[in-house]
Structure prediction request, 169 residues.
Amino acid sequence: MFRSSLFVTALLCLCLSCANAGDIPFTPSGIASLKGKDICELNGKFYSKVGVYLDGGREHVVKYLARDGMTVVFLLGKPMSENCGIVDAVLDLTPLIKAGETPEFKCYTDTEGGTTWERWGHIIGLANNQRGTKRFVKARVAWRVNIAQNKFEPFREKPVSCDTAGYAN
Prediction:
């Protein structure tokens, strides 16, 4: 009896530690080292996070994580879920984000991006929706997500609008 309860306790502790067992710290140097690795190797829990699949094909995810004063967007390939996947590109928004702004994934121009779930994440932006009082806002800065070249490209060609309503498909 004692042996089986000890085994169950040890197994439970092992499983709980695996949930946050990542060895890579959520620091600028840790984030810079993530390219080509699973995002789930990040250490700790994240309470501010959003991720959306690109193109409905579930081959790529754009995800942001925020903690400890840092806000970072990741392009993930080979996603096992919205939570894990191989980091193809990193965009550290920490030095760019202003008070009240959040990363937005439902951004668009008259020819790119969009507010339907198949078009989410192709254009991302930093915008302030005035604490939820504005649904449609202009992005102060924006990026095109280039999945062919695995990078975030600054987007300056046209004004970018964002729909800041929730993410439900």
The chain is about 15% helix and 35% strand. The radius of gyration is 18 Å. Helices lie at 2-19, 28-32.
